[in-house]
Amino acid sequence: MALTLTGEHSVSELARRFPMSFAAVQKHVAVLEGAGLVTKRRQGREQRVRGNADALREVHRLLDELAALWRGRIDRMAAILAEPDPFDSDPSDSDMAGSDRAGSDTASSDTADGRPADNERADGEERRA
Questions:
Q1: I need a surface site. Which of 43, 79, 105, 111 has the fewest CB within 10 A?
Q2: Residue 84 has what DSSP assignment?
Q3: What's the pTM value of the predicted model, to 2 decimals?
């Protein structure tokens, strides 16, 4: 891209400058042309390529906007992650909280999806067999 902004170059000339095949350079040029970043014209047997500085400036501007947007989002995520979790309790209480849950007589027999187990009715009364 940088070379095409310095002036018009043949695809063959560009291919000689890079460690890739002529076909690969042609494909790259086709992608850049499709994106509007370069223009191509035929001069005899050669394909001449020239960079489009205005299009590159526009791409640069759009990328700067996206970068600023994501920097702001990442900064907000970092701020949220830095806030203390209001649901975290005192670490010394964690052993007692775990033992209270495990030994509770009021443990629910609901299924994993929140529905009452087969032996319970929705109103909490047990069914009799």
A1: 105
A2: P
A3: 0.55
Question: Tell me, what DSSP letter sits at residue 36?
Answer: T
Instruction: Look at residue 92 and give its three-state secondary structure.
Output: helix
Contact 5, 53 (CB under 8 A): yes
Reported as a pLDDT band with limits 50, 70 and 90, residue 38 is very high
Using the 8-state DSSP alphabet, how is residue 10 labeled?
Answer: E
* 56, 1 Cβ separation under 8 angstroms: yes
The residues, ordered by sequence, that sit 6+ positions from 102 with a Cβ below 8 Å of its Cβ are: none
Q: What is the residue type of 103? A: G
| Cβ atoms of residues 37 and 25 within 8 Å | no
Amino acid at 110: D
How much of the chain, in percent, has pLDDT values that exceed 90? 64
Residue reference for tokens 């020239």: 50
Which helix (H) or strand (E) is 51 found in, with range? strand 46-51
> What span, in angstroms and rounded, lies between the C-alpha atoms of 54 and 61?
11
The rounded radius of gyration (Å) of the Cα atoms in the chain is 33
Helices (H) and strands (E) in the chain, counts: 5, 3
